[in-house]
Amino acid sequence: MIVAGLGFRESATEEELAAALGDEAPELLATLEARAALPAFRALARRLGLPVRALPEAALAGIATPTRSARIEERFGTGSIAEAAALVAAGPGAILMRTRRIAGPVTIAVARSAADPDRKGATA
Asked: What keywords sit in the KW lines (predicted)?
């Protein structure tokens, strides 16, 4: 399973979220519970017909990520919301296919579940 993890400002629009996804083709969207409830995120998930995994902050704490934001690490206990959300939602043994990419108010990362037979190494 391919999972897009998203971190974004509360003010992000559906269009900004969609633009950040670009040509990624996730099977699931993952983000923090508080962000998953926002209208722009819900609208994007509906538009794409994708399920959502809304993660509690505690689920991301302690998740090692290859990129780091000091502010995010201090607040959430992980270096990247997008990377941590993608990894947690993809399940045990998941690998990062794309490290975080920042597009305006949105950060996106993509992970693949360990059960996916076509899994490959991380790319930037």
From this structure: Methyltransferase, Transferase
